Prior knowledge:
The protein has helices at 47-53, 79-92, 105-116, and strands spanning 7-11, 14-21, 32-36, 58-63, 98-102, 121-124.
Amino acid sequence: MELSGGRDVEAGGLRGKLYASVKPAGSAPRPAYVLLHGIGVSHRYLARLHLKLAREADVYTFDLPGFGKASRPPRQLQIGDFAAFVGAVLAESGVSSYVVVGHSMGTQSAWNSRSRSPAGWRAPC
């Protein structure tokens, strides 16, 4: 399953894709989830979960740099690079409070991101 409407995002010289399902501005506040895929997969791995969560929450799912429809990075990336990328894209997108759901490498990126900027985190999954 593939999500539609992904947009190209860039941070720290890295490029990825962000798939967002959010209610329009002015709607009642909803919880927000950030879904991070593991190594060797893409946003498609979490697409069904994205759609289910989007019924009750704002959801942000990534194709991390070098995965899915995201372009290949100019160098080999470390977990901290993915974490910094996610944090910067979320901050630029105005996402300030969220629950992170990670799979495999996505979990490592999530925890690394939390250590860099814990302010936005409500809970890890």
